[in-house]
Amino acid sequence: MRRIAALIALLALAPFARADNVTVFAAASLKEALDAAVHSFESSSGNRVTVSYAGSNALAKQIESGAPADLFISADTDWIDYVESRGLAVPGSKKTLLGNDLVLIAPAASRVQVKLAPGVNIATILGDKRIALANPDAVPAGKYAKAAFTALGAWNAIEGKVAAAENVRAALALVARGETPLGVVYRTDAMAEKNVRVVDAFPVGTHPPIVYPMVVLKRSTTPAATALAAYLAGPEARATFAKFGFSAP
After folding, report:
1. What angle in degrees, to the nearest 10, is found between the helix axes of 223-232 and 31-45?
2. pTM exceeds 0.85
3. H-run or E-run covering 214
4. CA–CA separation, 182 vs 125, rounded Å?
């Protein structure tokens, strides 16, 4: 009887023993949407997923330094290329998941109006205030913003007025708290924060297309990583991302 009871106990635990843990390093702007997609994957697969959110540059450097992760989702191709060039990604595993838009935001109560067109005078609008950007030297959202302002002929005048944040969500928070009168984030970030409003969107062609590529990392040892990668690139996850404002790539 004891042997039968022990066997029943082992059978009861078996589904949990087979569950795998997957660690994902993902761009900060994916937070709400990826959390929702991951929850659906966990419910259907029985696997468990841990997501670490930060600027794509910081995550790529952590991966290079040996941080344990199975998947990496960046907010641009540069940092995926960085990881691939160092032999840290599974060859052929790169998939482009999503697209996004770049927008100028202000605190929700602000009445400032700006039309993002060539010759726009952002510096005069700012006065002695600053504009919140993710670090334009490294973080994808900041790099896109610098490219866009440069294309509009406004970068030289505002470069000294930039409040550089460690990632796009930190830039969003500066505007939401009213610490800066303007900021640049992705449209999906603005949708996730009720204390900001979109002033205008940057015209198409002023910056490289905003895409979110993903790779499976060589360090990964769990089959669930490949399963999660396939799920995130599939129609169910894409529908989830669309609910949060992301576009197809």
Report:
1. 120
2. yes
3. strand 210-216
4. 9
